[in-house]
């Protein structure tokens, strides 16, 4: 089954003379259970694609299907049960004055879920945190713990698809590895589908089976992970990006 199907998605953003085309005819699909990477230089449109799929932007053209249904035809409740997003900066998704309990309970309340306390405690345990964290506030947590809470919140409605926008880029390298391993474990255990944005090709290599390279709002090539090791991409820009990353890895 196809989990995510992005078909000819285009969007222009900005107002008046500053209006610019940000995405042009983006197409790719992600199989159920697959982890698919999106890479490309800053400003190439990676976050914008995730924001279109996540319905944080709505002025796009084209079609996005989740498990065969166009997102625009999905009732909000079904949509939230199918897909959730994790951001780079957990401060963006966790309100500083809300306790972890409030942050985790909000989606459960909106969706009128049963066994809320049990679900919140399990969500924390599943991301490697003690249920005591429910009474804490975001500023009382380390960066890694905050990102674990953001992941717990994204998973609390048991979605099948996660959109991950640089989920570990703001973390120290050692913490980054722990959170990446957690995400890999969660995917296996829950058979999740990931759409994973990172500027770090080593992270993509570790986390994804396939990836798309973006440049100036377009996908220039879709490739399997193997290509990252050899640098044998067809597109010149993709080849350059991989080559630069391979040289960097050899230099450090
Ligand atoms: N709301 C907006 N209005 C106008 N332009 C925008 C808006 N949001 C994004 N852009 C522009 O769209 C382009 C793509 O942005 P996007 O955030 O998707 O890039 P990205 O690939 O995620 O980059 P990065 O790696 O730095 O996160 C950029 O040129 C950005 O300035
Ligand atoms: Mg981005």
From TrEMBL:
<dbReference type="InterPro" id="IPR017871">
    <property type="entry name" value="ABC_transporter-like_CS"/>
</dbReference>
<dbReference type="Pfam" id="PF00005">
    <property type="entry name" value="ABC_tran"/>
</dbReference>
<dbReference type="GO" id="GO:0005524">
    <property type="term" value="F:ATP binding"/>
</dbReference>
<keyword id="KW-0813">Transport</keyword>
<comment type="similarity">
    <text>Belongs to the ABC transporter superfamily.</text>
</comment>
<dbReference type="InterPro" id="IPR050319">
    <property type="entry name" value="ABC_transp_ATP-bind"/>
</dbReference>
<keyword id="KW-0547">Nucleotide-binding</keyword>
<feature type="domain" description="ABC transporter">
    <location>
        <begin position="4"/>
        <end position="241"/>
    </location>
</feature>
<protein>
    <submittedName>
        <fullName>Peptide/nickel transport system ATP-binding protein</fullName>
    </submittedName>
</protein>
<dbReference type="InterPro" id="IPR003593">
    <property type="entry name" value="AAA+_ATPase"/>
</dbReference>
<dbReference type="InterPro" id="IPR027417">
    <property type="entry name" value="P-loop_NTPase"/>
</dbReference>
<keyword id="KW-0067">ATP-binding</keyword>
<dbReference type="InterPro" id="IPR003439">
    <property type="entry name" value="ABC_transporter-like_ATP-bd"/>
</dbReference>
């Amino acid at each position: 089954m196809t989990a995510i199907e992005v078909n000819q998605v285009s969007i222009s953003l900005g107002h008046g003379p500053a209006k610019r085309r940000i995405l042009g005819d983006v197409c790719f699909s992600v199989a159920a259970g697959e982890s698919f990477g999106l890479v490309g230089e800053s400003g190439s449109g990676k976050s914008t694609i995730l924001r279109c799929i996540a319905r944080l932007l709505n002025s796009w053209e084209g079609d996005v299907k989740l498990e065969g249904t166009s997102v625009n035809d999905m009732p909000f409740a079904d949509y939230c049960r199918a897909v959730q997003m994790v951001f780079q900066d957990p401060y963006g998704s966790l309100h500083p004055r809300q306790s972890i309990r409030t942050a985790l309970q909000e989606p459960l309340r909106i969706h009128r879920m049963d066994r809320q306390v049990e679900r919140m405690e399990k969500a924390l345990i599943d991301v490697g945190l003690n249920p005591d964290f429910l009474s804490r506030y975001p500023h009382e947590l380390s960066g890694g713990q905050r990102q674990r809470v953001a992941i717990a919140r994204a998973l609390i409605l048991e979605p099948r698809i996660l959109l991950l926008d640089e989920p570990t880029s703001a973390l120290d390298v050692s913490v980054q590895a722990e959170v990446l391993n957690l995400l890999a474990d969660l995917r296996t255990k829950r058979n999740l589908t990931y759409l994973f944005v990172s500027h770090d090709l080593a992270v993509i290599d570790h986390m994804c089976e396939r990836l798309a390279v973006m440049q100036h709002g377009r996908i220039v090539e879709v490739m399997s992970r193997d290509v990252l090791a050899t640098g044998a991409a067809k597109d010149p820009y993709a080849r350059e990006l991989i080559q630069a990353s391979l040289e960097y890895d050899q230099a450090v």
